[in-house]
Amino acid sequence: MISYPLPYEGALEPPAEWERLRRQCPVATVELPSGDRAKLLTRHEHVKELLSDPRFVRPTAEDGAARVAPEGVGGAVATGEADSDRPIKGEPHQKWRRQVSKWFTAKRMTALRPFIAETAELLVDDMVECGGPADLKSSLGFPLPVYVICDMLGVPAADRDRFSHWSAAFLSLTRSSTEEADRAQREFTQYMSELIAAKRAEPTDDILSMLIRESAVEGEGMTDADLLATGMGLLVAGHETTTSMIGKMVAMLLADRSRWEQLVADPSLVRAAVEEALRFDANFGFGMRRYLSEDTEIGGETLPRGTTVICSLNAANRDEEVFDRAEEMNLNRSPNPHLLFGAGPHSCLGQSLARTELQVVLEVLLRKLPTLELAVPTNELERVEGLLVGGLTEVPVRW
C-alpha cells in the first residue's frame, strides 16, 4: 500500500515515485493520513479527463468520501466541510461562476496591472531599505496577493494576519486541531457576515458590493449564504496559493542562476517563464480531489461509484508523453498545456489574476534587483508541512 502524500527528497524536487507510478501504475490505490483509501492519478491524460468531466466535483460533507486527515486534526477543507453552501456542480455552479467571473476577465486584469505593479515596487523598495538578506516570501510573496484580493473584495488589508491564520486553519492537513479549525471558521464567518452587512448599508466599488447590488436588482442573485461562501472562498484562494507560488517561482529560477540570467537578458520571456514555473512546480500540495458519483472508467480500470480520486497536477505536469524533456525547466517552452489550474468547468476561476500577479512580480524583480540570488543553498530551503497547499517556509535572498 502506498502512503499519500508521497515523500519528497527536497523542497524543490519531485517525489521519485511519480515517474514509476506514471509508467507502471497510473491509477494507484493510496492510503491517506486518515487511514482511508483513495485512487491517485499521475498521468496527464487521466487527470485532464477526470477534471474536465462535469459530472464529478470535489467531495462535500454529504458524500461520505475518503477523509484526508485523521479524526481530530485538519481544517474544514481537509475534512470536506468547506464551502458547503456554495453551488459546486451543474447549472447552479455555472451560474455562480458567471456571476463572479466578471471580476476576473483579461480586461479587468489589464486594468488592475498598474496597481499590482505599484504595490510590488513599494514592497520591493521596503525590502531593500531594510537590507539583506531578506525573506522574499514575507516581504513580497505574502503581502502582495493579500493587498490585491483585499482591494478587489473591499476588505481592510490591515486584517491580513487574521486572514492568514484563518486560511491556514481552513487548509490544515495535520497542523490544526478540530477545535482550532472550528474556532477559526466561526471567527471568519462572523467577520465576513459583518462585512457583507456593512456593504449592504454602504456599497463600494468591489466584488461583494457588485454581487449584492445584482441580487437586489435582479431578485435572483446570490443568497446571503452564497455571498458568505464566495467572500470567504475568494479571500482564502485569492492569496494563499499565489503567496506560495511567488516564493517557489523565484526559488526555482534562482536555484539555477542561468535561468535568472536568461530572464535578465531577455525580459520578453517573462510570460513563458511564469507558465513553465507553474508546470515545473513540484510542491503544489495535496492535489485536486474528485468524488465519483457513478461508475467510471479511467485508464482501462473501472472505478466504482463512491470512489475518491486524487488528481496529482504536479505529477501530470511532468508527463514525458506530453512535455518534451519534462524534467527540465525550459523558459522557452511552447506550447505548455500544464494543468496547474485544473481543466474543464471547474478550472480555477482566479487563474488570470494569479498569472498577472506572478508576471508583474517577476518583471519588477528583474528590473529592480537583477543581481538577486538565494541567500542559502537550495538544499536548505524547507517545505511548508501540514497544509493541503505546498510552499516554502522562507525564501532567503540577497542582492
Task: Give a verbal description of the structure.
- The structure is a single chain.
- This protein has 399 residues and is of the alpha+beta class.
- It has a single domain (2-398), classed as Orthogonal Bundle (Cytochrome p450).
- Helices cover 48% and strands 8% of the residues.
- It has 15 helices and ten strands.
- The strands form three sheets. A five-stranded mixed sheet has the order 1-2-3-8-5. A three-stranded antiparallel sheet has the order 4-10-9. The protein has a two-stranded antiparallel ribbon with strand order 6-7.
- The longest helix has 25 residues, at 106-130.
- It is globular, with a radius of gyration of 21 Å.
- 44% of the residues are buried.
- This is Cytochrome P450.
- Keywords: Heme, Iron, Metal-binding, Monooxygenase, Oxidoreductase.
- Pfam families: p450.
- Its cofactor is heme.
